[in-house]
Specification:
Oligomer: homodimer
Number of domains of chain A: 2
Largest interface: A-B, 66 and 66 residues
Number of helices of chain A: 11
CATH class of the largest domain in chain A: Mainly Alpha
Strand content of chain A: under 5%
Order of helices and strands of chain A: HHHHHHHEHHEHH
Radius of gyration of chain A: 22 Å
Structural class of chain A: mainly alpha
Chain lengths: 217, 217
Amino acid sequence: MNNKTAARKSLPGHSRPPIAGTTIHAIVEATRTLLATQGYEALSMREVAAGAGITPPAIYRHFPNKDALIDFVVNDTLREFELHLLRAIAPLPVGSYERLLALGSAYIRVATEHEAQFKILFTRIRNRPRKLADFPGQWGYQVLRQCVVEAIDAGILREMDPDLASFFFWSRVHGIVMLLLACDFSDTLPPEIGDLTAENLFAATRDFVVSGLKAGP
Amino acid sequence: MNNKTAARKSLPGHSRPPIAGTTIHAIVEATRTLLATQGYEALSMREVAAGAGITPPAIYRHFPNKDALIDFVVNDTLREFELHLLRAIAPLPVGSYERLLALGSAYIRVATEHEAQFKILFTRIRNRPRKLADFPGQWGYQVLRQCVVEAIDAGILREMDPDLASFFFWSRVHGIVMLLLACDFSDTLPPEIGDLTAENLFAATRDFVVSGLKAGP
DNA sequence: AACTTATAGTTAACATCGTTAACACTCGGG
DNA sequence: CCCGAGTGTTAACGATGTTAACTATAAGTT
């Protein structure tokens, strides 16, 4: 009857959890799950608490407020994101065009898998745009830039400013993902593209970027 | 003392307003203003009501709920948006490259001026992506497509599927705008670009799209 | 001109949300 | 053995979107 865990569930006022960091982990995990299943607008501290097996005010022992909790979760995903990018290019030859394609695909994959967290980056208005350097792992920018530099050096890409080119690549993939999150093109685009996934549209417009759009000479 | 407008402000239970549609207009205008000044997350029905000179429940005589009110305002902006596009290309020659550039600039201008409303299109999670046809004025798509077709016919752009090309143009501009809303590149991109506005970055990366990125033959 | 009714306001209240205050249990270290 | 830090609890506050119940006016009907 006086089972410890039962006491931990039912009595007011608890001890520290058996393993340090357990509760924080549960809170973060519950937040992640709720973001993925119900989205940002539906995320409430009470649901997070329920998911973590505690009461709402207990969250505030670990995070100063809701924003900080969400920031933590999103930053965590951004850190993983850089690892995804690195893993995507690892097996491919340095300086290759394939590396750039792989980065685009990895970006699309993570963005669509973590749609809610991805949207949060653009939703939070209170803070003017964050400096790129303030994003964990610089949001993968250095990985992209490195691949661009190597591709230019290898003669795969023409000579150009690597930062400007990196921005260009990034904004291109980003635009496809964001546009598809808002708008359904299924009755608009030609059926031979197949499913209108970001991945497919990235592939279908690839040659536009490689060869350019101006009419040939 | 028994002034009518004074009575209208102080007594419980009012008549219809002197001119039909006046209150709706006041509500919409208050919403628009608050969105622009304080953003989406800070928008409350009570503030809207105060801005419109009524009490909160009165809003519900004209809009079923907050979402519908915001939808109305955003859709209104989208309708104006198409007019902006048409006005931007009107003075330029049919089939010209300049028309495509003007569309990009107009998109950027409206998106940055109505940042909050623009974000809303991507934030509202509850509704899966809306069909393009459901956006007022198809979000300007037909205007863009028309210009793309004319540019292809004029031999300015190479032969390609006009819908795919339109999607490509759109996603490109859209990506620049959205990326800059989230991230500040000021310590990253080369200073010769000038202010890191979407407009400037659109211009700076223009040649990448026109001529392509592959190393020249 | 008087009565009726739809319209468009009001006040009061509800549930839910993020958050804080006050309190309580438990563990580790003096 | 106590005691303070850590971590949980319950109760409550103010703000939010929204509804219920009521009311005054304007327009339409007889």
